[in-house]
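Practice problem: predict the structure.
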Amino acid sequence: MRSMIFNALFWGIAAIFALLCYALSWLPWRAPLVGCMIGFCKSVRFCLEHVAGIPIEVRGTPPTQQPVIIAAKHQSYADGPLMMAITGDINFVIGNGIKKFPLINRIVREAGATMVNTQGNTTAPGALEAAIARSHGENRPILIYPEGGLAAIGETKRYRKGVHKIYETLDRTVIPAATNVGLRWNQEDWHKTKGPAVIEFLDPIPAGLPRDEFMQRLQASVENATRALETEGKAFQEASQ
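Answer:
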């Protein structure tokens, strides 16, 4: 029943905010559009916590209004809204699968986000170049999912080169982020599992590391912390049964 009520609220709220954001996207200023998007994301968090019974714990220090790169694990449709609810205005690199939702293409473009092809074809490098060019001089984080898409619980996908391209070109610190939100809202699943979820911001990775060292360090940081959070979340489920 919780899942049914949450899903109805989520998609209803999403539709209303999509219409509002689309209207605001025609204004000459970004601030109203971004504020509306953050309002949607905070509404999603509220519904997760108070309707679906999934309290969200944030560990570590969220980087708000900082020129850093957040390289995060991606397990759930909830990840993007939760990250924006926590960190505020971000330049997010987003897979073009989001195009299947009406109005979203214009909204994310006008909000300053960047779409990349999730299949890794020739449109992706140009999109990343656009993200990099737009990010010079910006005092807000870039959010990227290094695996390029949703991963199942316990799964590690290949970390793609786009995260290193942004890291190297912008010469910015990277903040790895781990999560176990997928235990509660798994990928695109309609069913939601009651219980706490965690988003953890990990120790920063300084700018300037060689590619192989950076990629190995990033993957180890995100995946090890995510496995630990998954173990913690599963233990809670077993204890509550």
